[in-house]
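re: that complex we talked abt at group meeting.

here r the seqs, copy pasted straight from the sheet so there may be weird spacing, ignore it
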Amino acid sequence: EAGVVQSPRYKIIEKKQPVAFWCNPISGHNTLYWYRQNLGQGPELLIRYENEEAVDDSQLPKDRFSAERLKGVDSTLKIQPAELGDSAVYLCASSFRTGVGGELFFGEGSRLTVL
Amino acid sequence: GNSVTQMEGPVTLSEEAFLTINCTYTATGYPSLFWYVQYPGEGLQLLLKATKADDKGSNKGFEATYRKETTSFHLEKGSVQVSDSAVYFCALNEYSGGGADGLTFGKGTHLIIQP
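got the structure back, here u go
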């Protein structure tokens, strides 16, 4: 079974440029998460989807970040315009909607460097 | 809000040494607790979990016990190997009835095992 797939793995851009990251979750997983991991830190949740609905986007910087999951399957996270402080690894995870103790499955991440 | 505090690294041990990585948490309800591991160049993967007080999670020789009275979930292994070198993240997840919320992570502990 294929895991969570993310692309691109690496992206280098200049500040003020736009960037987009794509995630394809595990088949059948209705919950999708985007996390940001700064160097030396743990991942921090940006947004959580239940199917196509964003049920928790309280930590998403909405002035420059946007996300969509139009058909409730794959998802795109966009930054426009990028700032130096956006350099980080962007992680996508998915899970099957379940109760207590549900496991999240993570992709390998997209490493963004903003120059 | 929820938070996870884990011992800072790097932690450097010799092969076959005993390992403890401390983790304490703050949560409003009754969270599930997890240890995730990130090997070099790979994505986060679940190591073990516990969903209620006094539960013990175990996998690959690692163990952690959910201690509600001390709000702790310390990771232990009796004899570490070079292949255990990785970054370990303690995390919690609360179930809100609408599905599993996103994981709250600690900052991670970098473990280095020397032959």
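couple things i noticed - The mean pLDDT of chain B is 92. Chain B touches chain A at residues 4, 32, 34, 36, 42-46, 49, 51-52, 89, 91, 93, 95, 98-108 (CB under 8 Å).
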